[in-house]
């Protein structure tokens, strides 16, 4: 009998659009056990975008836990539930892109033998996910895994900080910030400064960014870029579990390759991972090659 999992997801925006964040969790229906809790700040975004991002985070966690499960996604967003169920049309481009990502995740679960259904619930029944989304809107990242094969990862004190030392004294996480060149360098630097706080990272380049792509970031952050050649996934695997904070300036295809490797996305679907010029994505890994995507395509 297939395992039954329940995703509860929510998102919010203070201003709509305004300061946004999402929350999501996964429960084992048979035992009632809470398997994972997730929250992430989104910068400035609409309420609907935040709701979709919560749903995507929940389904991504399901793929990591048991993609062959019978999955119910419960949300108080009628829009997301009806659009993902195919009963409402999707007119807005942002919603269409996010819905496509959701359908890819649903397809991956179905290909593994699982099922996915979407259920609307009243806001009063979605309190746990709502609390997590408020953590996100408050600027806190949460990635707490309660499964047997995952270390518990708790929220950090700043917008995207993650505790790097496990409670039992095990090795720290490797935190990778992946920057796609282009866009507004000033905005990218501002975002990186918020993520780095007082930490001083390594600065690497993968996949062929030019000095013109990298030097404005290096100068603004007072760092020296270290160009690294060779296959991008080899470079990524070399970093996994080594600890510390690393900023990597890499072309969009190189960033997609890393994200797809963590999420186990087939190569044919990598182009569904939207990445804007100047965007930042984040990956965290632990010894033993456990890794999660903290966020993607933040501008």
From TrEMBL:
It is an enzyme of class 5 (isomerase). Signal peptide: none annotated. It comes from the Bacteria. SUPFAM superfamilies: Ribonuclease H-like (SSF53098). InterPro entries: RNaseH-like_sf, RNaseH_domain, RNaseH_sf. GO terms for molecular function: nucleic acid binding; phosphoglycerate mutase activity; RNA-DNA hybrid ribonuclease activity. The keyword Isomerase applies. Residues 1-138 form the RNase H type-1 domain. Keywords: Isomerase. Its EC number is 5.4.2.12. It holds the Pfam family RVT_3. PANTHER family: POLYNUCLEOTIDYL TRANSFERASE, RIBONUCLEASE H-LIKE SUPERFAMILY PROTEIN (PTHR46387), RIBONUCLEASE HI (PTHR46387:SF2). This is Putative phosphoglycerate mutase. It comes from Janibacter alkaliphilus.
């Amino acid at each position: 009998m297939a395992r039954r999992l329940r995703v509860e997801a929510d998102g919010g925006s203070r201003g709509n659009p305004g300061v946004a964040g999402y929350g999501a969790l996964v429960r084992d229906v048979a035992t009632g056990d809470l398997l994972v809790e997730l929250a992430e700040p989104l910068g400035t975004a609409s309420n609907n975008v935040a709701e979709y991002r919560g749903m995507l985070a929940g389904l991504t966690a399901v793929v990591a836990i048991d993609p062959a499960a019978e999955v119910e996604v419960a949300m108080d967003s009628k829009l997301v539930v009806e659009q993902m169920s195919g009963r409402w049309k999707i007119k807005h481009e942002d919603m269409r892109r996010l819905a496509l990502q959701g359908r890819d995740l649903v397809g991956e679960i179905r290909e593994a033998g699982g099922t996915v259904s979407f259920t609307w619930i009243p806001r009063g029944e979605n309190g746990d996910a709502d609390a997590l989304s408020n953590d996100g809107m408050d600027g806190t990242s949460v990635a707490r895994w309660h499964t047997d094969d995952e270390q518990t990862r708790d929220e950090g004190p700043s917008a995207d900080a993650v505790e790097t030392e496990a409670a039992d004294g095990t090795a720290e996480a490797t935190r990778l910030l992946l920057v796609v060149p282009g866009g507004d360098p000033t905005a990218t630097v501002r975002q990186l400064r918020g993520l780095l706080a007082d930490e001083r990272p390594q600065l690497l380049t993968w996949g062929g960014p030019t000095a013109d792509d990298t030097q404005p970031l290096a100068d603004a952050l007072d760092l020296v870029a270290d160009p690294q050649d060779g296959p991008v996934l080899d470079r990524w695997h070399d970093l996994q579990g080594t600890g510390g904070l690393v900023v990597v300036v890499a072309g969009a295809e190189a960033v997609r390759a890393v994200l797809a490797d963590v999420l186990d996305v087939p190569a044919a679907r990598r182009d569904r991972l939207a990445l804007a010029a100047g965007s930042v994505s984040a990956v965290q890994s632990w010894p033993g090659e456990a890794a999660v995507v903290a966020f993607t395509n933040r501008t």
